[in-house]
Amino acid sequence: MERIYLRQNWTAPTQATTAATASRRDNSARSHNIYEILSLLQEETKSIAHEEVCELWEELCENHKENKKQKKTEDDSLYQQSMQHFLDYFSNEGKPENCEEVLSYWISETDYSITKDDVTSYLSSYIQSKQSKELSEALLSLTDRSNRITVVRVHFDMVLAQLVSMLGYRDDVLNPILSAMTSLGIAPNVSTFQSMFTQFENDSIFTHIQNLLHSMNQFHLSLKHFCDPNYSQKNQDKPTQLSFTTRHTCTFLLLF
After folding, report:
1. What is the pTM of this model?
2. pLDDT digit of tens for each residue in the chain (256 aa)?
3. Which of 163, 159, 162, 81 is nearest to 128 (CA)?
């Protein structure tokens, strides 16, 4: 399975040492501190078994809760970075249930911000695990649980574009997200439409977007200037089921 890496510019904390790796390999019973956990995640993820990563996640939660009790905040950025690492790891492994666990703790136990990268990582875990049809439900569940997701609601196009750029124009990716956007009353912008229409050959995508626009009753979509001169004759019996090919050029007009 192809692995998806959302964040490439990680920098190891200066206090992280190789002692963390040695202690793990020696099966030491002591827990790791935040620096050691982050070091292991950055350097050893490919060689650590999934069960060990889950144990590290439990250690991180215990450490974080203890820090909260003592009202320590100096390592908050490291905890957030570690949570992002866990999220990306579980996403790459196609483990949406683990991603859900990370985000649940993130939302309920911290006030750390959640970015479009984090949401994209969460959603891609469903795609990696061949559960693309669960995307819509997962996205709706996530947006209902925290006001901190509001920024992502406003930038759904960015999340959608990010997934499409990584995975291609697939209906199992686009349709669930468009469905969630319909439920949330969020319309993709015109550039998103153009990308879909010109690069994705699937009648159902147009129907889905058209239904989205009509349901919102905010603006109408007009299509004209198709390159195929016989287009109107071929499609006069099914006006809403437009057949798009790479030979067609679409012009979209937003009428307010």
Report:
1. 0.63
2. 444 444 544 443 334 333 444 444 444 444 677 778 878 777 655 677 888 889 999 999 999 999 899 988 888 888 998 999 999 899 888 899 999 899 889 888 888 888 878 888 888 888 888 887 787 777 777 776 655 565 566 667 677 777 777 766 677 777 777 777 777 776 666 666 566 555 555 556 566 566 555 554 433 333 333 333 443 444 444 433 333 332 233 333 333 3
3. 163
Give yes or no for a contact between 44 and 21, defined as CB atoms under 8 angstroms apart.
yes
Query: What is the SS3 assignment for 193-210?
Result: HHHHHHHCCCHHHHHHHH
Query: What tokens were used for 148?
Result: 């901190």
> CB 86: neighbour CB atoms within 10 A?
25
Residues 5, 102 within the same domain = yes
What residues make up the domain containing 181? 138-256
Same structural domain, 59 and 108? yes
